[in-house]
Amino acid sequence: MYLKSFHISGLFGHLNHDVIFKENDVTIIIAPNGYGKTICLKVIHSVFNKRLAFLRNLHFSSVVFFTESGSFSISKKDPSSTELVLCVNGSVSDMTISKSVDSQDKKIMLSRLSLYVPFLNRVSTREWEDTRHGDLYSFDDAVEVFSEYLPDQYVSKQLPNWFLDIINSLDVHLVQDQRLIQRNGIGSARDLNKGFLNTITMYAGELAEIIVDSGVEAAKVSQDLDSSFPARLLRYSQGGHC
Q1: Strand 70-75 vs strand 84-88: parallel, antiparallel, or unpaired?
Q2: If I label 214, which of 47, 85, 130, 184 is the partner at 20 to 30 A Cα–Cα?
């Protein structure tokens, strides 16, 4: 199966986009900053990787995926709601998926998630890393993706079989250039927030050092020029060069 096109409406409350994918070719998406190019890619990635928490937290009205075998949609009755309505081929027999874990259970699960899923390593207060592949998950995403490892009381209502059949028939991966953080080679459940470096802070520190070094160099050059000024002025008055 391949994805033929994708439509999203009501993105951020006012944007509607249609993306048509070229079969066996490259599709390039071009638009001004802030129009949701990356968001569209993240929507596709989240749907086909069972990361529906991303859609719950996104302000939109509906997304429709057109494949060679039909179409399916995910919508919200209220764009700011966390409830998702799944529908296949325009069928009225849709299914509403509510929030995966309630607030009380979430407090308990935050400390136990890595115990239930042994290859999940907590790398920050809000993120877990799949040590098999290096993928990062939010809490809600991890609960949905690895629901088979969790006790029944923490698992949300099962996704419909037709939805699972569709998303399992297509491999989708988002390769994103992360410009704000970078891995520093550390990272364990005991070293929260040490697994990643804030790139802005790191480069700001490097820039500060460069500015300081440049200031010192400028002061040295200025001092040298000041100390040689009388001699240069005398040579200039005698027809020489400073």
Answers
A1: antiparallel
A2: 184
